[in-house]
Specification:
Layout lengths: L6 H10 L3 H30 L7 H16 L5 E5 L2 H6 L12 E4 L7 H13 L6 E5 L27 H7 L3 H9 L5 H4 L1 H8 L31 H20 L5 H16 L3 E6 L4 H4 L4 H18 L2 E4 L17 H19 L1
Parallel strand pairs: 1-2, 1-3, 3-4, 4-5
Length: 355
């Protein structure tokens, strides 16, 4: 009997190729994988080399608004407010915007202490913004940086851009750890940034605790972030235990951290090197909030402030008592009406100092 030699090769060839009924689904799956890879690659490139608001909406959207204001007023020198949510919610340039003179814009960042101030100004310079002056927040609690008080723990590493690495290396407590957290999004960036993406497109799909848009969605065209409209006495009392629980231990163990102190001096030094005029602002606080301070924390905060004033010759506007307690529900953040009244009082002094 002569064996059927043709049958063997056909079976082996068949073993290397999927059955016809599987070829369509496999091709679809392969196309899907390629699409996911391509989308993640494109998104990764856009995060690092595209518009800043893709990686950091809080900064990038304010930058877009700032550029719009500068385009509308090309002859007016910009003066930037740089600080935390206290200045972000408390200084509202748009309510008393004159027709001439410096153009004041709020570039504050939520939780922004000295390290964030360095990051923000270095980013602005790199993005082509050359301010004529800076209103810089001074708040002693942000100078503490031991343990969990270090500003690194308030900064989301996924918001860091490649150009931020020198600042991270200079002022973060554990820079390698922080940069690893930032670099970790490069594998599947759409997953790493999913909360930010969904917060931009359809925030209602996310639980409130996962949304990133509250700190930037309602920011107005002058960088102001609206705070609370008002608060009843009952609401103030209900919120006070949380304020006391956080700030009393901070003040009782208060110290000025070397990295935070160095970051604050670096801001002033780099502004001086660029010929920028700087005014330091101490934002309103209630007398009740100030009772949380200890004599030692107050001494150290005043001592540091006096040192930088002597070293850099900057002017300080001490506005701690400029707002009624009814406009400071938690003791240190202004309500919307409080921000308007405070800004109307503050702006003439800022323009006088920085003229």
């Amino acid at each position: 009997m002569i064996p059927n030699l043709a049958s063997g090769p056909r079976q082996r060839a068949g073993s290397r190729n999927p059955p016809a009924r599987l070829r369509g689904p496999l091709a679809t799956f392969a196309a899907f994988v390629l699409l996911v890879v391509a989308l993640n690659l494109a998104f990764s490139v856009a995060l690092d080399h595209g518009p800043p608001h893709l990686r950091d909406p809080e900064y990038g959207l304010r930058l877009n608004s700032l550029r719009n204001r500068l385009a509308e007023h090309p002859t007016r020198p910009p003066v930037l407010v740089v600080g935390s949510s206290r200045t972000g919610q408390g200084i509202r340039p748009g309510v008393c915007e004159p027709a001439d003179g410096p153009l004041v814009f709020n570039m504050s960042q939520a939780g922004g202490g000295p390290v964030s101030q360095v990051l923000t100004l270095r980013r602005l310079w790199a993005d082509g913004i050359q301010p004529a002056g800076v209103v810089l927040e001074y708040w002693p609690p942000f100078l503490r940086g031991d343990g969990t008080y270090h500003e690194q723990h308030r900064l989301d590493a996924k918001r860091l851009r490649p150009a931020d690495e020198p600042t991270v290396r200079e002022f973060f407590d554990t820079p390698d750890e922080a940069w690893a957290g930032r670099s970790g999004d490069s594998v599947v960036p759409l997953v790493a940034h999913r909360h930010t993406v969904v917060s931009r497109v359809c925030p209602e799909l996310l639980p409130h605790t996962s949304r990133t848009d509250p700190i930037w969605r309602n920011v107005d065209g002058w960088g102001w972030w609206p705070g609370r409209i008002s608060a009843t006495p009952e609401q103030v009392e209900a919120g006070w235990p949380a304020v006391e629980a956080f700030y009393r231990p901070m003040y009782e163990g208060y110290c000025v951290h070397p990295q935070h102190a160095a970051a604050y001096r670096t801001v002033l030094k780099e502004c001086r090197e660029r010929g920028l005029r700087v005014v330091l602002i101490r934002m309103p606080e209630t007398a009740r909030f100030r009772t949380l301070q200890t004599s030692e924390s107050e001494r150290l905060g005043e001592e540091f402030l006096n040192d930088v004033v002597r070293e850099f010759g900057v002017t300080v506007i001490d506005a701690r008592s400029w707002a009624d307690g009814s406009h400071l529900p938690d003791g240190f953040h202004l309500t919307q009406p409080g921000a308007e009244a405070f800004t109307r009082r503050l702006m003439p002094e800022v323009r006088t100092v920085l003229k």
